[in-house]
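From the pipeline queue, job 12 of 40. The input is one protein chain; the requested action is below.

Action: predict structure.
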Amino acid sequence: MRIKIPEHDFYGINVIPMIDTMMFLLVFFLMATKFADIERDVRVKPPDSHNARPVMAMPREMVVNVGQDGKLIIGGQVRQTAEVDRLIGMAKSENPDQAVVIRGDKRAVLQFAVNILDLCEKHNVKHTYLTTNQGDQ
């Protein structure tokens, strides 16, 4: 007795599970990614420089934003000079290669940024950076 096997039409590969997996991975990596500009205060506008380079995110860098009026902002919170001094000292004791990035507003008095540089010298921080924007050539 001959058994007939019914012929099924091939409808193609079901891509919906693959699309679901790709969307899940996309959302996962977006949520797990550390955004480099999280410490950058958008109200601070650094001065322009023709030879400016982008600041590379260093491990555990401390970003100190100096506002136009001299406010010191670290981690989105306004801090006093004594508190910044204490934070730099603690960070340096935990990490000998601590980097401090100073983002000064171009309308701010230069002395405010120099005060932070003095604190870095006091705690012997070797990696200090003053950021600028790349101006028109």
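Job complete. The chain has a mean pLDDT of 80.
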